[in-house]
Amino acid sequence: MKCPNATAVRTIALWQILAQVLVPIILVCALSAGQDETNLYIINKGPSGWVCMPSKVTILEGDKKIVELDHKHYAVVPIEPGHHVFLLKHATMYVGGPPKVELDVLPGQTYYLVADNRFYVAACSRDIKMVSKNEAEKLIAKMKPLPASTTQP
Q: Residue 9: which domain range?
């Protein structure tokens, strides 16, 4: 009876060990891919009631412009985990300070921010607020996406 080649046996054993070690690592990487992607949907609900200003809105984080949207448009912006304060750019003809939303962003989550212009009594009122996924999906269904190249990461 012929004895198997010792080099071939060692090679097969090495591949079996590598497979036992690498397969779980590859599976964990594949399952966690995309879980750390965190997005912010910014939705410009557009004018409701009387239109008191052009319906374009600009969302800022500090002094940095995140996105500028025409009415009935939305944008998907990648966002880093951590504390964020988003402002609706202030125009002097509005009453009060710039509306803002504070948000503690967790990895792998998706957030929905809605901007709106309204006319109340004799003044313009602006608002930004966080909404649920269900509410955002209803609004987005009636809107156009902003091309990704025009957003500021």
A: 1-33
- Do both 25 and 65 map to the same domain? no
Q: Are residues 29 and 43 in the same domain?
A: no
Q: Is residue 140 a contact partner of residue 74, using CB atoms and an 8 Å limit?
A: yes
What pLDDT shows up at residue 41?
94
- What mean pLDDT is predicted for residues 134-138? 92
Task: Tell the burial category of 82 from Cβ atoms under 10 Å away from its Cβ (0-12, 13-18, 19+).
Answer: exposed
Half-sphere CA count of 31, side-chain side, radius 13 A: 6
Distance of CA 49 to the CA centre of its chain: 28
Q: Count how many domains the chain has.
A: 2
Q: What is the DSSP letter of 38?
A: -
Tell me: do 78 and 129 sit in the same domain: yes
- The owner of tokens 């003809």 is 93
Q: Which two three-digit tokens encode residue 18?
A: 């590598």
8 A C-beta contact, residue 23 and residue 16: no
DSSP designation for 54? -
Structure tokens at 5: 């080649």
What is the pLDDT at residue 153?
A: 45
Could you tell me which of 70, 77, 67 has the C-alpha nearest to residue 40? 77
Query: CA 134, 139, 144 angle in degrees (round to 5)?
Result: 130
Task: Quote the pTM value.
Answer: 0.68
